[in-house]
Amino acid sequence: xxxxxxxxxxxxxxxxxxxxxxxxxxxxxxxxxxxxxxxxxxxxxxxxxxxxxxxxxxxxxxxxxxxxxxxxxxxxxxxxxxxxxxxxxxxxxxxxxxxxxxxxxxxxxxxxxxxxxxxxxxxxxxxxxxxxxxxxxxxxxxxxxxxxxxxxxxxxxxxxxxxxxxxxxxxxxxxxxxxxxxxxxxxxxxxxxxxxxxxxxxxxxxxxxxxxxxxxxxxxxxxxxxxxxxxxxxxxxxxxxxxxxxxxxxxxxxxxxxxxxxxxxxxxxxxxxxxxxxxxxxxxxxxxxxxxxxxxxxxxxxxxxxxxxxxxxxxxxxxxxxxxxxxxxxxxxxxxxxxxxxxxxxxxxxxxxxxxxxxxxxxxxxxxxxxxxxxxxxxxxxxxxxxxxxxxxxxxxxxxxxxxxxxxxxxxxxxxxxxxxxxxxxxxxxxxxxxxxxxxxxxxxxxxxxxxxxxxxxxxxxxxxxxxxxxxxxxxxxxxxxxxxxxxxxxxxxxxxxxxxxxxxxxxxxxxxxxxxxxxxxxxxxxxxxxxxxxxxxxxxxxxxxxxxxxxxxxxxxxxxxxxxxxxxxxxxxxxxxxxxxxxxxxxxxxxxxxxxxxxxxxxxxxxxxxxxxxxxxxxxxxxxxxxxxxxxxxxxxxxxxxxxxxxxxxxxxxxxxxxxxxxxxxxxxxxxxxxxxxxxxxxxxxxxxxxxxxxxxxxxxxxxxxxxxxxxxxxxxxxxxxxxxxxxxxxxxxxxxxxxxxxxxxxxxxxxxxxxxxxxxxxxxxxxxxxxxxxxxxxxxxxxxxxxxxxxxxxxxxxxxxxxxxxxxxxxxxxxxxxxxxxxxxxxxxxxxxxxxxxxxxxxxxxxxxxxxxxxxxxxxxxxxxxxxxxxxxxxxxxxxxxxxxxxxxxxxxxxxxxxxxxxxxxxxxxxxxxxxxxxxxxxxxxxxxxxxxxxxxxxxxxxxxxxxxxxxxxxxxxxxxxxxxxxxxxxxxxxxxxxxxxxxxxxxxxxxxxxxxxxxxxxxxxxxxxxxxxxxxxxxxxxxxxxxxxxxxxxxxxxxxxxxxxxxxxxxxxxxxxxxxxxxxxxxxxxxxxxxxx
Length: 1080
Prior knowledge:
Structural class: mainly beta
Oligomer: single chain
Number of helices: 3
Helix content: under 10%
Radius of gyration: 73 Å
């Protein structure tokens, strides 16, 4: 590339005026300083022997002819120039140029200026083709810049950063005309990634882009370099589509002036992608002190190549509580070293800044963090490609403070479990499908609807309630206890669901097996087998059952002494306040003014729809007995059921009916009852103690021992036991109310002790089903059915404590004959008497006793009872057993006693008369003398007729006339004289025959005995004149108004027929004159 000099002539003109000298193609001057005539000259010589550097100059200088000045025009060569991609490429041309000299400059890819096959640099502009020109042309040598001027190729943004070559030519039209190699031009910029990982970053790690560069050794220039990361397929240039990566500022700032390394920062958000576009720019601002750097979009219009942001991308995930949780991530370049943690972000679910690890229950892998709080380690990616699967275990619950069960999953490329600052990349929300932790409650007897909050509930969800000391899903250690609630399904499938809540209609609980309180837990399952309790492994929270505590367990069983309450008839009974009849207080969790108890009849299924309330009467005040009964403020744990007592009118025992009797009853509670069916909560057994409603009776004349049936239980387990040994009974009129002031209860019956004394231990049956109350023996007074028996638990020993006898046991009957009955019989007439009374029985007996003796039944040796002793009298006599048991056959009295013994102030018990009384015995008890106790004097007995043992004498030939004496005699009376061997009252007796004598004979007259002070009567008979017959002694029989010989039952005495006596000076012919005259 140098001019050939010296140069021999190559041609001469024909006229010889000149010759042509070919100097060749000048590429540069000897000193690389092209110049005008003042710098070079042309020397001529005819010949030169040889050319050397030294001699050539001498030959030309010494021998040659100076032809003239020589001008060489063109640029200075061997220049080293620098341009930078994305900046205007301006080069400075220095040389010697004639005026208006055209020039051309080309930037060649190879060092082959002047070659016809020269290749252009390949650089261009990505923004607009007009922004880059190669080759370029111009006119040099103009004005002051004739020999030193600047030219510009434009702004290159496409092509390689490398060394290029500038070729120069003047007014050239072909590549070979660019023969002058001005020099090299280094196009500064990045040439690619410095290493295989130079353009690869992981989300969450410090991201440094490391580029290989050329031509950026100038620090001021390199410190302005920038990079941009654009979306896949984007074009570097004026309208870049930036990759959605953060932080924003870090991805465009050079770190510490390095020309090769660019700090992107820790990218937390954005999409992991292996095909991001990396753009580079040299920067425009020469001042680097101005921060933040103000750039424009044209700065980074050079496409460096591909940038890979590796890691997990954001996607929401889902697991279901209680089921194994495995989720998958999406991303690029995932490895088995990747890990995630799950954060409990109660507010912000987009940032991994608040590194509070979520703590789930019962995860299979459990570790302990630095605070000693159980949690789980970071989850490591699966070891099998594509390393996108994470196995969490089985979460059984969410933290207490979560109001929504959503969590943030934070990812790290490779980090230790608890270096939580490494987990900065949010890769999605993990939704734990199911309920958030929540304590719930229900109230006994009220519909129980458990509403849970959470996400994505399903119609297959179910709830189970277990004991509070159990663990959900754990069948052992401790054993999972599933209580059985009456009226409540357990487990229960969901009733209604929505996206954020679900409702379980558990039913209406009627029992709290473990008592009310926070004694239960709620376990949840997504789609369980209801028979497999292990499926219910999600702990939701505590379950509180509010309401009344049961007294005994099971509450529907029988009475449990010491646990269940009891009431005693007639006594105050306030359930829950420990009166004397209740040894256990009642408890209610959250009592309310609406709380009520109903007391019902025991049934196989207690406190059910068919509840039958019991009915008692209230002995406390004038109000009805309360059932149901409301709770009493302030805690509504006491229930005043007043003084319960049996209903009136009293009847027989009625177990299982509406009318209350002593015994066991169910106590059913309700929180706010609107209907009987609402009383579904059994509290236990309420035992009413006292007598059954019953009719009672005693009998006059026998010991009155009333065996009262009832519940008279008491137990040592009760504190204190309440025996019934202080109870008493009182008889009073049935028209009065027990417990009120009576008109009179004294001396109802003579001998009757009222009220009864306290029973002895032996008076109480061993099964405590009855108590015998003894009122002693009543023997005087009227029998009646109009009385009642009143009872008191502990009335004391003061007889007039009538107000303590509040319980009406029932009607009381005193059986026996009415007093004041008058019974009369006649001698010789069958004596059948009929009495009246109450409760007469076939055992009854009647005895006729003389009033002269002691009282009925008296065995007093000083004044014993004198029994009537007349021939033919049946006394005592047992009642005729018929429908009425009121008739007695006293026989037929044939003799009325002697005139001498009977017509006295105190007639003998053998006499007819009015001096008899009737003594009655029930005929069951036996007195001390072995006989029945005829204690009841119920009336008088009179036996009328003639006196007996009366001797009548008549004389032969005389008129036979005589008087008979007796009681209630009548002109209808008749006598008959029988042969001595005859018997009065026989059907065909041997009637004595006397001539002239009427036999039988009717009374002539009857009337009172003249001058007698008693009711004695006489009857006169005139039989006629005896003119014939056997002298002797006969038998005289009497009849009141006989119609046949058999009715002459009365044995009057002997009838003597005598001869006519000798007159011995009697002044009056009468029977007395001859009374002692011996028979002839």
